[in-house]
Design brief:
The complex is a heterodimer of chains A (242) and B (346). Chain A has 242 residues and is an alpha/beta fold. Chain A is 38% helix and 24% strand. In chain A, the strands form 2 sheets. A 6-stranded mixed beta sheet of chain A has the order 3-2-1-4-5-12, sandwiched between helices. In chain A, strands 6, 7, 8, 9, 10 and 11 form a 6-stranded mixed beta sheet that branches. In chain A, helix 2 packs across helix 3, helix 4 crosses helix 7 and helix 5 crosses helix 6. Chain B has 346 residues and is of the alpha/beta class. The two termini of chain B are 22 Å apart. In chain B, strands 3-2-1-4-5 form a 5-stranded mixed beta sheet, with helices on both faces. A 5-stranded mixed beta sheet of chain B has the order 8-7-6-9-10, sandwiched between helices. In chain B, strands 11-12 form a two-stranded antiparallel sheet. Helices cover 43% and strands 20% of the residues of chain B. The chains are: A alpha/beta (242), B alpha/beta (346). The interface between A and B is medium-sized, with 33 and 34 residues.
Chain lengths: 242, 346
């Protein structure tokens, strides 16, 4: 009996997508079959996401009513990008009456990183001269080693140095690759470019590993890390006054 | 299936998260509006990033509440209507992404609605016999537009503000005078005890010969007046100052609106938008219109401010015409009343 129920779990039809970076990544899993559509769509997730979901389902010869679970990337990343993904996921979960699971985009990047036994640093360009990042123990004992942070790339390097050897992955490399090489030198290697953007397939894997958050769809929220700028400035001003 | 057509409206263009169910474009079954004012108050204005975050937090529960209060469910909806613009892009995105996902997930037709058209349609909810042609004055925190509505869906923008929207001017002056936020209702209240003729503030562009507005000069005039009186050591009578400022705004709005009706030979005037709740604007416009034999329509206060019932009402009309919003549609923060957003399904 127990075996059977776990099989049911694996056979579940799961839809996943991530729009926290320039990548619009959609994946669908049914039994052992995978379908995915990944394409770079800077500032175009509104246009691309649902058509992508629709074409992915068509490729799988499935109806949206066959979807049994949705997994969404929660960021951190572009505030607007993440919100498009989360709003779409929440709307779909509400319409279809299926459970919704949220997974961090940094976790997704790290799990997608190839390469053997080195510590993984997942790093996303956070704009305003900063990066979002975290560090991970590689599979088979995959786990996040520290909380998600946002910091200047130099501060990221300082933390990265505490690990002996490290492999970096994420679109932060596109912006700060040169700086990372310079500061970390022999300690660091970069994952091949094709792994620098999150793939929704890894969201499904993470959810199956129990590394997602399953909540009521209306409680699934982005991982922003940063406060709105206006809020930061207001707090600064207030601090200066007192 | 029943003959009545139920439309779910969704509105997130600024700082109200709203969902509503309207029957046949006329009967409001539910209209849930969650104002974000308390989160924006300390900034004396709407902070776009905070608005976007709050919309996402609330939207699905507000939709659920709207369906519940209307005693209906997704499968009974004829269509979903959503505000596509104009407005804050990050705020609009939440409504459009949610509406698209709901419509796709339930195979429900989806229609896009222009926010300003929604404000105009708020009048049809309260005045079933109202018919075009008419002149609409759309005044809110983000908009000041004078529109000739020749027919439903046929809009000609006669004039717009060249700088601040009227609601924005109220907010800025209220902020400057430390009356609080949002400024409109507070200024309206304080002005009731003041003399509107006490200070002769400029009536900007009142004789410009067109239907455009400019309000930033008036704001500067108020600031200069206060500074000047202070250096003279004179005490400022707040109620007089506020009443005089309000009168300057209202005078220009009313004279241009009435002028537009005369020029275009229509005898109906429609007020729409949040500033349409201003008591002085309402009474002055009625007075001037009456002199010329014009009728004035305005929505009840609850339908003046941003709400989804007005979006559902406008959406019903587009739905009946066979218009649909595409799955790849994006919001347009500068959407014009004169441009179309839906494609024809039939």
């Amino acid at each position: 009996m127990a075996e059977k129920s776990s099989q049911v779990g694996e056979e579940m039809a799961i839809l996943a997508f991530d729009t926290a970076t320039y990548m619009c990544s959609v994946a669908f899993k049914k039994k052992e079959a995978w379908f995915e559509k990944n394409h770079l769509a800077p500032q175009a997730h509104m246009e691309k996401l649902l058509p992508s979901v629709s074409s992915c389902l068509k490729k799988a010869k499935l109806n949206k009513k066959d979807i049994e679970k949705i997994v969404v990337g929660l960021g951190p990343g572009s505030f607007t990008g993440v919100r498009i993904g989360v709003a779409t996921a929440r709307g779909l979960a509400q319409a279809l009456g299926v459970p919704l699971v949220g997974v961090s985009t940094l976790d997704c990047l790290a799990l997608g990183c190839p390469d053997g036994d080195r510590i993984i640093g997942a790093v996303i360009d956070a704009r305003r001269g900063e990066v979002y990042f975290s560090f991970y123990q590689p599979p088979p004992d995959f786990k996040r080693l520290v909380d998600f942070s946002v910091a200047r790339p130099e501060d990221f390097c300082r933390q990265a140095k505490t690990y002996k050897e490290i492999v970096l992955v994420g679109d932060g490399l596109a912006t700060y690759g040169g700086l990372f090489k310079q500061k970390l030198d022999k300690l660091v290697s970069f994952a091949p470019k094709k792994f620098w953007y999150p793939k929704a397939i890894n969201l499904i894997k993470l959810a199956e590993m129990g590394l997602g958050t399953e909540k009521d769809y209306f409680e699934i929220a982005p991982i922003y890390i940063r406060q709105p700028i206006a809020e930061e400035q207001w707090k600064k001003k207030r601090k200066a006054k007192t | 299936m029943s003959k009545e057509k139920l439309i779910l409206g969704i509105e997130t263009s600024c700082d109200e998260t709203s969902a509503a169910v309207v029957e046949d474009g006329r009967k409001v079954l539910s209209n849930i509006v969650s104002s974000q004012v308390k989160w924006h108050r300390k900034f004396k204005g709407v902070v776009p990033e905070i608005a976007s975050r709050k919309h996402l937090e609330l939207i699905n529960s507000i939709v659920e509440e709207a369906l519940f209060e209307a005693k209906t469910s997704f499968e009974k909806l004829a269509a979903i209507a959503v505000t596509v613009g104009p407005g804050l892009v990050g705020a609009l995105i939440i409504g459009v992404a949610t509406a698209k996902a709901l419509a796709y997930g339930r195979d429900t037709p989806l229609v896009g609605v222009n926010h300003l058209e929604g404000h105009i349609f708020a009048n049809f909810l309260s005045h079933p016999r109202l018919k075009p042609p008419f002149i609409a004055l759309v005044v809110s925190g983000g908009h000041t537009s004078l529109v000739l509505v020749k027919n439903l869906g046929n809009y000609q923008i006669l004039g717009e503000t060249l700088d601040d929207a009227s609601g924005e001017a109220f907010d800025k002056i209220a902020g400057f005078l430390e009356l609080g936020y949002p400024g409109g209702p507070l200024i309206d209240k304080v002005a009731k005890d003041g003399n509107p003729a006490a200070i002769p503030f400029p009536r900007a562009m009142s004789s410009s010969g067109d239907y455009n507005f400019s309000l930033s000069g008036l704001k500067t005039a108020v600031l200069n007046y206060v500074a000047k009186e202070k250096t003279k050591g004179k005490k400022i009578i707040l109620a007089d100052l506020v009443a005089s400022f309000q009168a300057a705004v209202v005078d220009v709005l009313v004279s241009k609106t009435v002028g537009a009706a005369e020029m275009n030979e229509v005898n109906r005037i429609v007020l729409a938008g949040g500033v349409a709740a201003n008591s002085s604007l309402r009474s002055k416009l009625r007075k001037e219109a009456k002199k010329r034999g014009f009728e004035v329509y305005s929505p009840p206060l609850a339908l003046c401010t941003d709400n989804a019932a007005m979006i559902a009402a406008a959406g019903y009309w587009h739905y009946k015409k066979g218009e649909r919003l595409a799955l790849d549609a994006s919001p347009d923060p500068n959407l014009s009343l004169e441009s179309s957003i839906n494609f024809r399904n039939i």
